[in-house]
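[09:14] KT: can someone run the structure on this one? pasting the chain below
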Amino acid sequence: VGVPRCGASLHELNKALRIELNANANCVWQIQRNANQTIRLIFSYFKFAPSSSCKTESIKIYDGPSTNSPVLGQVCNDTDAVPVLQSSSDSLTFLITTNSVAFTRNFFVFYYFFSPETKVENCGGQLTGPNGTFTSPNYPKPYPEFTYCVWHIRTAKNSKINLRFQDFFLELDQNCQFDFTAVYDGPTTNTGLIGKVCGRHAQPTFESSSNVMTVVLSTDYANSYRGFSAQYTSAPLPGPVEPNIFLTCSSDSMKIVLSTSYLASLGYNETHLQLNDPSCHPVVTDSVIFSFPLASCGTTKKDEDQSITYTNIISLSATGGIITRQKSIQIIAKCKMENNSTVEAIYITKNNIIQNTTSVGRYNVSISFYDSDSFSKPVLQSPYYVDLNQTLFAQVSLHSSDPNLLVFVDTCIASPQPDFGSLTYDLIRSGCNKDDTVVTYPPLEHYGRFKFNAFRFLQSFPSVYLQCDILICDSNNTNSRCTKGCISRQKRAISSYKWKTNTVVGPIRLKRDLRSADHSESLTKADAEETPNLQQYSFYTLSFVVLISNIIIVVAVILKYHIKCQAGYGYQKIQSS
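[09:31] RB: done, structure tokens below
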């Protein structure tokens, strides 16, 4: 095995290269021989600098004698395969470039010349049907040297493949650099590597995610063993697990709920999840729940046309190892504030596949009256009784955890009815004061404030209600509608606001109506107190009349008896004769 420092010109029929490179390398190896044969080049082991990309660090293979020849392929840090490349002639070139990171890169490469028309018996082929078997060439005798066999297995649709090596014995090497078997999840050997094995194993097994699997046997020039005997079976794929992800957005927070069964179907659990800010952890019950304020946990805010969008990303990645075969997944959660509602969207990215779900919520906005321009003590009574021409102080409040929002009072109208029918009066319109007594205060974070003098509608309407249209903008946008103030209708059509809603407060009534109501109540109370007094007086009068009548009757009886006695009437005992 040669250890060239940086590049070489190679002419042997076959050769293995162990290459070590440091930072800022740019090395070229040229393989050429007048043999009228083809070259097979195998990168059976490669280790680039961590986190390097194909743009900064790679191996480029050229089908010809120089780097000006056509590109045959490229190997990078994220190559998910054991790269095997084949020239179209008797020359081949590869270039290794490294970035500036201080790190020792390691590569193991071997090549050999061969004649494509030379066939090896029982080496690769197409395998179909629900199950089957295959073996390495010459099994159970030693497999031949410089062998490259590819088996393509395909079963029925909506099934998966289970592969088991019943007997397995190849040359032993820690990194499987010499002789190896590679298994791919899919129809090609370019990507989807499930595993690479060598040495002596007790029935290694592999499983595909679909009805297609590819198996490779590659050998070098020495130390051949009996190879392998393999069997595959197929089984129906389980039904798809629904994403089962819920997103709720409010003025204050974002809440993402993921089912543990969905995570398990992807091969993950709660320990594999993290937000943009990894320090924000979920609560785990029967579900995995992320709940956090809008302006925290790495949430980004984007000021779009007539909307504000809050975005956070849940990343699902394997932990505790150097490499992984699991597909990377991102769950992109978006809260989009617009048009009197909050539209929530979740995008799940899985190898460039995007799924989404939506729901609806809203900002929390309220309006209240205050007793002074300090806006420290709200008026809690309802109705709010005021004097005619009294100065009233109104404040619109946005209840949100995002500190970088601005509230602007765009329009306020008054009406004697809470349904704001045909009879209305403009106090503010398009940010312009339409009533002479209206004074608007400059926007202050989550508050929009103004004052006006109390009035009443003609035709004896007792109440006044206010309805205000509110615009909410990103305070970091110095050119938003909230900073424009009064704008004419023509200009307003051009300008964009970020979010709009309306809110209602009332009723307002005059204090003289309160006094009239109090007087009416007093009269009603006096009448109510007088009624039982009259009833009590009638009872006493009736009792007195009955008493006098009884006395008169008794006196009449006594007088009658007295008159009879005076007329000689009496009782006399009868004597017996």
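[09:33] KT: thanks! Residues 550 and 556 are 10 Å apart (CA to CA).
[09:34] RB: yep, looked fine to me
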